[in-house]
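Q: My labmate handed me this sequence with no annotations at all. I'd like to see what the chain might look like in three dimensions before we decide whether it's worth expressing. Could you predict it?
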Amino acid sequence: MGSVDPVFAADAKLRVTEIFHSIQGESTRIGLPTVFVRLTGCPLRCSWCDTDYAFAGGELQEIGGVLAHVATFSCPTVCVTGGEPLAQKACPELLTSLCDAGYSVSLETSGALDVCGVDPRVSRIVDLKAPASGESAKNRWENLACLTPNDELKLVLASEADYLWGKSALAERQLDTICPVLFSPVADRLDPARLAEWILRDHLPVRFQLQLHKVLWAEPRGR
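A: Here is what I predict for the chain of 223 residues:
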């Protein structure tokens, strides 16, 4: 038997902040009962981040242990999120292992890291950072070349300036011809109705979305 890359070893470990069963609040999978695997750590510091509790801490777990925990919920849909899940080297193996186990898997990623090596069975939800996030310079535009209609692009917007940036990116890079594009307002910073009106006014080929979990629960952590 040949040598095994330690990144993809069966006992590879991940630092996990939480694993929980809830309703998917974002993406075109919105409303689906979903098991969330939230990995720890993120190299970005977005101004509106609502999961900063996942920046540090967590518990080291082997991939097998994560799979066993996910299985206890008897739910066919799994979302691997963060933090920034791809910041952990064993994340791609976790994603492949979940697919091999028969789950419908999505990955929520900042888009600052390379997503092209992720198992093609995974739906990659790539968050393009708008200027008000403070992290737009870290968008890895090269990722667009490997996305497919199975993936999604999410733009979270805090202002009209952010909207105009997103509108420009949509047109110049023809984002809607790659995969579904979602525009979402930052809670308490951009009135959702105004964003909806702009989308309608400009006839944008995007999907408007609100974070459903924040509508359902005031404190969405672990829900």
